[in-house]
Design a protein that fits this description.
4-stranded antiparallel β-sheet, alpha+beta, 4-stranded mixed β-sheet, 17 helices
Length: 545
Amino acid sequence: MMQPQIILLKEGTDSSQGIPQIVSNINACQSIADAVRTTLGPRGMDKLIISEQGKSIISNDGATILKNLDIVHPAAKTLVDIARSQDAEVGDGTTSVVLLAGEFLKQAKPFVEENVHPQVIIRAFRKATNLSVQKIKEISVKVKKDDKKEHRQLLEKCAATTLSSKLVAHQKDFFAKMVVDAVMLLDELLPLNMIGVKKVTGGALEDSRLVAGVAFKKTFSYAGFEMQPKKYEKPKIALLNVELELKAEKENAEVRVDNVQEYQSIVDAEWKILYEKLDWIHKSGAKVVLSKLPIGDVATQYFADRDMFCAGRVPEEDLKRTMKACGGSIQTTCQNLQGSVLGSCEKFEEIQIGGERYNLFTGCPEAKTCTLVLRGGAEQFIEETERSLHDAIMIVRRAMKNDAVVAGGGAIEMELSKYLRDYSRSIAGKEQLMISAMAKALEIIPRQLCDNAGFDATNILNKLRQSHAEGGLWYGVNIMKEDISDNFENCVWEPAIVKINAITAASEATCLILSVDETIKNPKSGGDAPGGGPPGMGRGRGRPM
């Protein structure tokens, strides 16, 4: 039987039902898996995606790549969704999850073509998934949290494993330490939005630094700014949502005047209102004034004369992070600024980073927060670094919450594959074939790691099968030596939850795609319906995909 040609784009419409439809969906999903196949692992290649606006993105992260591809095929979109869910839940393993789903479908395809009912395949896959998840939970290694030093090493190893497949692999030790420091600075709940990331082009990657506190770019400033002090010990911080400028008052009212004296009194009133506001701020004892709205030149000079620092037009997220970190609350009026609404920190300073000046607040008493200031040459490069660090941060968070780890590099997949294969031999009926098909599908991860590095995959997989059969639990691919090795000893570790999530998501997507046997697309509304009837009428089934 000839394969129907698939077109993932709008022109091609595929009007099949039943088995050809399922097969066509499987083929579409394989094209998606092929798009990210080569990005897996330390030797994975990157993809350059150019968006409609002409902005280019260079990425190695499965979720980012799939998010930026404009995919039209409905079944293939399922794979994009699981990559996103993996990214949101665990942060890493996005490429693996798409590859696994693609491979599960590939192994199911011959059965579908031979008229095995999809529900039979689905039942067997679900059973195999549950077995795999139980097996991971059984063999994963718990790490003692009591020993601070050992716990920290575990986190660093998990971060380094994640980073080894990214663009910043050469500096993975440097960044692994930085990421663990960053997550350690947070409180129990480990909120992601408390880690700010600022990108400054220029300098080397190693010039990146972690600020234990809040840092943001110096805002637009008026004359008089130069005279303000740039360093304070233990300052009080006023956070405002008030415009401290002269023009603010006259926009709020319309006034008609007859003579010059009346006009003068209006101008005086305006100045008086502004000076009153400034006096209140000064009396409150605040040394650093941050506002979401502009702070004009009169106010800037006023603060400079009184040894105070001000910054207007501070981005909202930075202001909110400062509030959470330094305490206090954002005020919309300057009256009655008391000590209770002011924030404080140990040290405030303004420093030069690259071509930009940054305001740093360190030693914040309230919430735990930190800012990563990333340096690097090209803009795309820094953006990819940020995405890589996001994956690493998520992994460290996961490893802190769930302290079970397994070995990476295809080791856990090979062990599960052997376990499922042994299990399938112990049962009779159709399930036996399906479960051994899933066992075979799990081997895609080590196989792809070998392919991406240019090794002889068949040869290495044979060695892996042999060592797992002999009880070498944690044997996986060793990219550095073109051989196999005990990846647990080599410190290639991943949190068990990453693998559990990846296998469950891939299996769910597979079952979903196998259970769809027809696509019905309603005709476009309006002129499509014959006789001008209501849209969606006439033409029977509508235009199938």
